Amino acid sequence: MDPSDPSTNDPRRRAPLVLTTQLVIAASFGIPAFLSFCFLRTQWADLYAARTLHHPNLPPLPKSFFGWIPALYKITEDQVLEHAGLDAFVFLGFFSMAIKLLAVCTFFAVTVISPIRWHYTGLYDGDGSLSVIHRTRLTIIGHASVDGDMNSNDESVVTDPEQYDTYLWCYVIFAWVFTAVTGYFLLRQTHHIVRVRQAYLGSQSSITDRTIRLSGVPVELRSEEALKEHIETLGIGEVRSITICRQWKELDNLMDRRRKMLRKVELAWTEYFGDDGVKRSPRASLPVSSLPPSSAFQMTDDSATPLLNGENTHVELPNVISGTPPVGRRRPLLRAGFLGIFGNIVDKIDYYTAKLEKLDQQIKLSRHKEYKATPVAFVTMDSVASAQMAAQAVLDPQAYHLIAHNAPAPHDVIWPNLYKSKFERLVRQWFVTIIIAIATVPLALCVSFLAAFLEKDSIAKFWPALSNVLEKSDLLNALVTGFLPTFLFTLLNILVPFIFNGLSTIQGYISHGDVELSVVGKNFFYIFVNLFLLFTVAGTASKLWAILKDTTSIAATLAQSLKSMSLFYVDLIILQGMGMIPFRLLEFGVVFKYPFKKFFSKTPRDFYNLSKPPNFNYGFFLPQPLLILIVCLSYSCMSTKILTFGLIYFILGYFTFKYQLLYSMAHTQHSTGKSWPMIFFRVCIGLIIFQITTAGTLALQKAFYLSLLLVPLPIFTLIMMYNFYEHYLPLSYFIALRSILSNEIRRQGSRTLDEERERNQVYINPNLVSPLEDPWIADENGRPINVHYD
After folding, report:
1. Chain segment 483-509, per-residue pLDDT in tens
2. Which domain range does residue 708 map to?
3. Which of 684, 578, 693, 581 is nearest to 629 (CA)?
4. What's this model's pTM, rounded to 2 decimal places?
């Protein structure tokens, strides 16, 4: 490869090699992962069909190697709604909408845009340089540099403005067409989601739908009787129950200490049984019971089923440790002093059991104490209509008093955050905001460093030796400038959401659903700003500084950068779609961690937790598809390859996430489809970027008149966003009174998923009422041994 030859740096020359290399690498990841899943799906049913253990009514899938694919495709939206809930319905609906949108855009790109481009330029794709090459003479009639000036040094330059303008009209027409198509599918999906959401929530009467959360409760109303009387005098309905949130921190701390002590007791019993007497047993039904107070502690074969919430309850253990201590085995001992180094030697089981008994007594006393009331309360009304009227009404003439909100589901509430003061939550929010702002700087530097690997010229500036090596090998050049940046990009996308999840957790949100939506927002902001705008527009720190000095060049720079970055995004979408999506199906992270978790599992409870399905968090899985769709929209007039591979990405993603949400992963958060407004607004932002970059592309070609024809498009998009905000956003958060059906016309003999999982639940801190569990023990036959006090 001759470095003096300018063609060696032409992205169009190296594109086939880079594309082929990325396809081979992605296929080498994806195909084995997919085939492994098809084989392991039935072999490791506890992992890959974990939800079927707790939801036996799920639509069955064939056990054949590929037979599950058509069966999964035939599962309808109604079945998704029934078995996975509204959040899964909205998430998969986004993928379905993206598939239809990209299918239409790809059709036009393949049948109209690319043939026109080929006719006038000899190029099938418009990525890289937007040079216009005559189809017969292959002479350049317009080569725009970064600043938009024509390249007068090229001897082959000719001027043919008529043909040039005719070709650029294609961009104008299809910018309007794709904007209209995107708006149509967005509004169509919005209508569909709103209609289904209103019908679904209006047809049920779960405790969540009948409950509101009140903040700003004045001091004189901070008792159940006073607040109940006040609410009923407002004439919005009868109050069924009220829970005033109180300062239960002391009780929460005691329960946390008890959970840790319970584990120590179970570890002591497991140590007593010994490794040589412990084995994995078949399924066993292990009773969960409260611990009655006493001073004696013993094992017994009594397996009488305890009562929990008025029902006989057993916990299904797929695998529990069982065994019997060998004859003559001594009970484990420890020193009772500081750090287990000093003090008298005592029986470990008796020592920890005595501490557990003492904690139980403290908890029982604490449960009967009076705690200071907070200005937060849960009010359960007699009907869904009453709760919705209260949630949408102004209840008090004084500011910050009796502010009503829809309540999260009882199992979704983060109780310790409810009785944090408003000031403490505000401090936490500002603290997290500052941390994210500070972290943006090193992340931006990482992105700039990552962008430097895209071109050999930039590599030569900071690593000349590597640049010299790349000059000698086309394959190595394709790997370093093609695969390496996309791999590092993917690695950042995997690691950063965990940081945002931790930050959102400490921010003070009152429900796990709110935490999840916060992670969606933070993660999307990160990948959109740092890994799209900064990566695409800036590329390097020097170019970023140039943009900051002249902000009027943002549109033109974005347009030029998108052209030069097209190969990177093709590689990224290929790696994400064909390589990483099958790994999500395989749940590689869960499989990788399983041996380590199993190694550190010692007690029956540990082994029981191994069988729990992993949690599906939209904060981890939603932002990246949003970015992929924005990239596809941005390149819709420019790159047929990106549209095509984007379509493949969403098809593979739809099947992968549909399987996971229905069969292998549990979504314990509960936000009733509130992620759709976030999706809608962010897709609209991507649409505006597409319109701006298309206008910038035309401006770079001195086609200012054509560029002006695109000015109305961002205005129309903003109007569409405002229309959604005014008319559809309330329907995405509340239930319309007209949608609330009477009990006589509700579905007979069936419950929704929300009603089923909220059955017998109440709005009360679990630490006040949850049974004090016995240690989990099993004998050599897998039969439960109930360990309790006499």
Report:
1. 777 777 777 777 888 888 888 888 889
2. 8-201+422-739
3. 684
4. 0.81
